[in-house]
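Inputs:
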Amino acid sequence: MTTLIWLLPLPPLLAFFAITLFTNKNRALSHGIAVGAAGLSWLGSMIVFIRALGIEEFGKHFFESALNWLPVGEAWFQVGVRIDPLSAVTLFFVAWTVLMIFIYSIGYHNYGQPKGDDDHAGLPPHGKTVTEHGHKHTVPSIEPMYSRFFAFIGLFAFGMFTLVVSNNLLTMFVGWEIMGLCSYLLIGFWYGKPSARNAAVKAFMTTRVGDVFMLLGIAYLYSATGSLSFTDIFRPEVLEALAAASTPILGLSAAGLIGLLLFIGTVGKSAQWPLHIWLPDAMEGPTPVSAMIHAATMVSAGVYAAIRMFPLLSLDSGTMTIVAFIGAFTAIFAASIAVAQNDIKRVLAYSTISQLGFMIAALGIHAYVAAAFHLITHSFFKALLFLGSGSVIHGMEHGVMHTGEHSVDPQDMFNMGGLRKKMPITFWTFLIGGFALSGFPVLTAGFWSKDEILADAFAHGHWGVFLTLAVAAFFTAFYTMRQITLTFLGQPRTKAAEHAQETTWTMTLPLIILAVFAVSFGWVGIPEHFPLLGNILPNWFHEFVGGTLVEIPEVPAFSWIPLATSLFVALGGLLLGWLVYRKVKTPAQDRLQIPVLKNKWYFDEAYDLLFVKPSIWIAEKFTSLYMDRTIIDGILHSAARFSLSLGHFFRDRIDKPVINELLGDGTGNAVKTSGSGLRKIQTGRIQYYMVVSMVVLIVFAVLYFFLFS
Amino acid sequence: MTAERIVFILTAIFLLASALKVVTSRMLMHAALWLVAALFGVAVLFAMLQASFLAVAQVVVYIGAIAILFIFTDMLTRKDLRDQGQQTRSNWWLPALLGLLLLVGLSSIILGIPGVDRTFTALPEGFDPVRSLGIALVSPDAYVLPFEVASVLLLAALVGAVYLAGVFKKD
Amino acid sequence: MSVPLSWYLFLAAALFCIGLYGVLARKNAIAMLLAVELMLNAVNINLVAFWRYLRPVQMSGQVFAVIVIAVAAAEVAVGLALIISVFRRRKTVMADEIDLMKW
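Outputs:
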């Protein structure tokens, strides 16, 4: 069984390598390999999940397997896999959503369509002009970088699976970072567009801020406990030691500080305030990317990590307060922006940020099971909504190409309308997703999970969180209905909308399957004390996932107030949204187009002023111009000039006159002169030689006589 | 003044005078002949020193062979009347000076030798210098090797002289 | 009284110096060789005098003198042969004119 768990991340990784190295040219083979790999991982995940279900008290008898990896002194640093209840349910939804998104991508990138007239790799496809029914019009064309997309999402799936099956923070962080890389690659998939490039960099940079703090947290944790494995960290004695140790920062204990640092990673990855700015811009990527990254997997990974570290986080009330505050604030903040957005994907982006805030807030108020529950249900219906929006956009693009009105933005909701007749499957599934998001009672999963958060907040007396989340839930229902009304209801407002058409089965089938989960998944977590329905199905979810912790958390006591509040905000919001927006036809008539909300509370501009412009200044002016070119290059140039002048000095003043002329030539000339002088001794006349030798002999004899004897 | 001494003095005067004439004669033939006289004087000295063999060898070898060689060579290399010219170099005073200095030096050394005034003692009874010389020259533990080497040297000189001075037909 | 050793030595020294003068001062090469013979004879006188006065029993003095005579003979033969050879080439026996080995 544990071998199977080790193998789960492998098929998408192999698909990535196979597509990148070998099958790039063959589109059918590429998507076949990718979908097949996702299918294999899905199959493995289902097997693991079903086996996990069968084990009594799975929280205590989870699957774990570890390997010695890095020798550290006497011991080994181990890496391994762990499937406990939390990761089992996460694995379940990850496997399903990943598979659905892979299948959807085939249709989304127009497999089977002809190549476009003027399509370049790096830009979205523009369509091909064909003559049909006697008149010319454009049809959608296949994405030029088709295989590359599947390679990237394969790598992405690998990262997510790795993160989910990890038993330690290190490999979890590895999966985390791989997904960060893939989000950069995929957001900037259409790299020909400057907006996509900037969005990719923005996403990477912002999550990097979070990741740095997370890494600090991991390092601190490792140095404090000597291990990164969850089993080791969550031992009671280790947790007690961490809670007892104090740090000088903000009066937090070691546990609190580590928890806070790790939580900042989640803030970045799950786009919570203040690091939320990247997620709306990330809509530049293709819609399956938005679905995958921003619904099903990557942002969920942030929340998953926070939930995983709950035993550590919950030790310090200071940290928990920060967590709850950020979650609740983000929830209402993002919801307020969503009501003023006109792009169908932007609404969903802010919606995601807001819903993640719900989960984080739930975690902050110790509602462990509720947070996990909402995480899973949200993945299903948010993925559904994103894929649905992609289907809508495809339908609108078909209309745009058919009518030739290329100035019409297929993503602007004010250009849509009446699509329920043109795209029925998309309509009904989107409706289910939207109602789940709003928390429509009983029939949708979102109701059960959101209600549980509110109930938990109310039952434990967290009034601030309760009220904030209730208002945010109201906004959620309101903007969701606004979105549905503008898009699907009423009459088509443009010719493009009139000619919209339902999309292929590869896109609508995943919508249907996800809709099934969006409806039914909530029923596994019905609280026991719920009127009427509480006793029909046991609260399996609470028992199962709650078992991950040392003690199963107690179910909050039932009260009518949170339930009524839920119903009121959900139904009231939906009704109000419908009432207001069935009359609104243009943005001018929309009274909620308030500049502050439309411009996202000016946070992007603030960050630009506070961080981006100073960084650019430091890079361009300070470092490059002043330090590098003026000072350092100046020093180098003067050193060079000095060396050069020194060299000239040596050459002209010392080398040439002294060494060459004086010593070199001088010696030569001296030898020549003395030689030509001395050779005159050699007269060739022997008596001359003999006379000379006699003279010398006598001289020496006299000297010898007088000096030595 | 014994008879020996008188004989010595006379011989010495004769020898030195001949030697001077050797080095100052204008004509080479005269110089050669004066050399013969000098060599005779030396032979007499050898006889006075009871080196009988040497005295005879001196006459036979030196006068009979070497001096004759000189005379022959002079005759072979005579050319015109160049013989009549100045036979001494123009700076003859320098060699004279050197010679004198050397004489002075040698004299002072001679005077410094201990026992230089001795006279010779008589030869032992039954001691025959000639016989002893003969034995010495051919005895293996005496001087046979230098003797033989000297003969080889003479052979080499002979061959060399013939080759150098000979006239061979060049083909 | 017999002749003192010093007289022989002085005589030999004088003869040697006369010979030296002759070697250095005569122009004709053959005359130079004549003077060389004088010097050799002076040496012989020295040798024999020392033999007779110091060690008459040891024959080394006389043997030395014999060898000197032999060597002198060889040297004169070769030297004169050389002079004749040079005379044939350069038609001169004047030492000053045989100066091919000058600079």
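Remarks. The radius of gyration of chain C is 17 Å. DSSP finds three helices and no strands in chain C.
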